[in-house]
Structure formats: structure tokens, C-alpha cells
Model the fold of this input.
Amino acid sequence: MTQEPAGGGLPGSVVLGISVVDDQIASVVRDADGHILASNLVDLPDPSAPAVETAIVELVESVPVVVDQIGVSVSREDVRKHLAQVFASETAAESWYDRVVVTGYASALAEIACTHATRGGVVAVVDLDRDAAPAAGTALATIDTTSGAVLGTADFTTNRLAPVTDPDGASELSTAVTKLPRGRDITSIIVVGPGAELPGIAPAVEYAAQRPVTVAGNPSLASAIGAADAALVALSAPAAAPRVSTGRRWWFVGAAIGAAVFLGAVGLALLLAGEGETPEPVSVTLTETPAAVTVTADATTVTRTETETQARTTTVTTAPRPVTRTTTVTEEIPGPFTVTETETTTIEVPAPGEPGQSAP
Done:
């Protein structure tokens, strides 16, 4: 079976796209022009991660053509992590392991949106299982068709919704869409998966969501085609810059210090050369303030701060105040003692020539 190319592939590459959604594996082989050379649908009796690994190995080894790249998109995160670890192992069991690119299912949904959207802007893509309910895992996403960016996803691994053929299930899906980033801004909804082939799906979802609904062409294989495109996008993306070793970073630090020293030496040499030359007279404006002196010259401003300290010493001399001290000593004279009384008689003698007086 052949199909017109959706987006083409890498020049000269044949890609095997594998999608693991719920309990089903869908696969397509696309040539370099995007034509589908072969396709396959496998029901998984055991959806566990080891069982999925075994089924993919058997599928790859049964492909009738040689493939250059293998893209695997998985809706359940636990299975995706298991497959990514197995196929990235350095002790690969098969030679083709290094050609496998494992991506989340949101990457495949983004490629589906960019391929099947009939309106631009933001669209929602949902994968419906056989019962027309959103498939287990990451089965719903909002996509910006302008850039192909995944804006938001919803996971239904544990919180399963009712089939959208039931009005309540369609309303639940519409509510889940509006809760996603830019969910209220979507221009349309794209449905894929085996449930999208059931009659009345588009009108039921369109009535609940009040948005146009598109059923992808060949909806059961759309996820596998999206997986192939997602692998090509991942391979064509620019490689991440190699990690710089610690020693290299230290070398860059040393180089920066050396450059700083060199520039400092150059600046010092220029300064010394400038001092050796005779400067031309320049006008100088001197502004004096009590605290600072600013000298302004052409092309150069020098600020010099002068600090003046005044000290005043005051000597206060205090003369000693004379102190008069009086001491009273009382002496006691022990008795008995003798008192001598002296009687003094004054005799007046007349001067010569004066009449005398007789003594009494």
C-alpha cells in the first residue's frame, strides 16, 4: 500500500515509524519521498514494558526492507522510559539499536497536528482507543501549528474518561481540552486512533466542544506516521553543545586574568609615556571650599581633599587658698600653788622749783 508523502523525510532515508498506544502497536515504513511502503497493526495481549520491547524487536526484524532510522513514540511514560533505556544501552543486543529514536507520544501528536490541521493557530489532538475513549497515557495535547510546539498534554493512564460516543464522555473530553494551556483558544480538534473510525465521532465531539472536528486520514496509522516524522525532527535538530571540561574552564579563567594583566601593563606604559612628554598649558579653575579643594583641568579632573585641624589648648591654674588653722591648748596646773601679789606704789616727785608736798 502506498500513500502520498505527508512531509517527506531526510534525503535518502527510509524510516520505520512505530507507535505504542494503549494495547496496540502501529507501524509504517516510509521512503525518502514520504511514501508508505508497508504498514502493520499488532494487538498486544500483554501491554507491559518487557512485552512491548519483545514485540518491537520481532516487528523490526520482520520488516521487508532495510530501514535507516526507527522512530518509536509511546503514550505511556513507564513504557517509554523502559524502551529508551534498552535501545540506548551501550551493550546493545542488536546492531540496529543505535538507529532507534524513542520519543514521547506528544511529539507524534504534534506532527499529526501540523499535517492534518485544516485551520491555523492552536489545535487539539486526541487519540481514541477501540471504544472511542481517550487512550491510556498521554493521548491529548494542544499544539501550536505555526511552530509545531507542544503547549500542553493530558495523561489518562489512571483517570480514564468515558467514550466520546456518550454525551457525558464527550463533555469530559471537552473539559479536559479547555484545561490545557491555550485550550480555550483552539481553532479545531483532530481525532486519531482506531476509535476515530467509528461513525458519529466527529459530530459528537464537535457538539460538546463547539469546535470543528477533523478525523485524520487513515486514523489507525496516523500515530505511526507521526512517530516517523518525530524521529526525523529529532535527528535534524541541532546537536547540543559539547560539555566543556573543568580543566578547559580553568584555562579560560587563566586567560582572562592574563588578558587583564596585559591590559594593565599597556595602560601603565601609556601613563608613563604621557608623563614623559611636556604637557601643554591648560586653563585651571580652582574652587576652594572649607572642606575640599577641586582642581579642574581640560580632559582631566583631579579631586584633592585637604583637611585642616585646629587645636586650642586652655590651661586653667588654680592658686592654692591659704588656710589658717587655730589650735587651742588647755593646760591644767596641778595644785597647790602660791599666788604672789605685788603692790605697786606710785610717788609723784615735784620738779625742781616747784613747792614740795609733805608726805602723809
Q: What stands out?
A: The first strand starts at residue 15 and ends at 21.
